[in-house]
Design a protein that fits this description.
mainly alpha, about 0% strand
Length: about 90
């Protein structure tokens, strides 16, 4: 009997949640407003976005530094190894 009561309570809770959740829709459009899109226009902005024309100066970035390794490879390893073997 307890299992059936728990199952019934779970079903009632699920139905109530689905009814409440279905009414949570977005707000509808107002009847008197025109849909002009989303955005802002600042007519008194003194900053012009120039610098993109063909006659404007280009911005050049310095290249990154040349990196060298702290551990230098031994370029003469094989001749040094042969000299050490000859002495044996």
């Amino acid at each position: 009997m307890g299992r059936l009561t728990r199952w019934g309570t779970g079903m009632v809770a699920a139905v109530l949640v689905s009814i409440i959740a279905s009414s949570a829709f977005a707000q509808g459009k107002a009847a008197g407003k025109k849909d002009e899109g989303y955005g802002y226009e600042f007519s008194d902005d003194p900053l012009n976005a120039g610098g993109f024309g063909p006659n404007d100066a280009t911005i050049r970035v310095r290249p990154g530094p040349v990196r060298t390794t702290l551990i230098r490879p031994r370029t003469s390893f094989v001749p040094e190894m042969l000299k050490s073997v000859e002495n044996l």
